[in-house]
Amino acid sequence: MTTRQNSVTALATEIKVPIKVKENLETAAAKQGISLMDFLIAAANDAMAKIPEETNEIRLSVRDQIQIAEDLTAPPRPLGGVMQKALREELGRMDEQSKSTLKQRLMRTRNV
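-> structure tokens emitted (112 positions)
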């Protein structure tokens, strides 16, 4: 006879939090109609899912964003045709919202 292993692993843990925090967590869980433990597990899973997204993002300061925009709009340097072709190809892959955002940023840098 074969034994099936349970896919749920038991985990016992203790978390010490201020009473107000515990009350807030219980309230939030109740509003979603789930237990406190299910709420905490869901919150932890959500947080873990965001980790790859956050590590793939590059955040630039406003100054760096302006510098990149200026570099992209500067007169062509030697091999400018190659760079312009690459830029056109990249723009072709961008969605309309990204193109619009880039155009707005470029307009702001020209007005500065």
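The chain has a mean pLDDT of 80.
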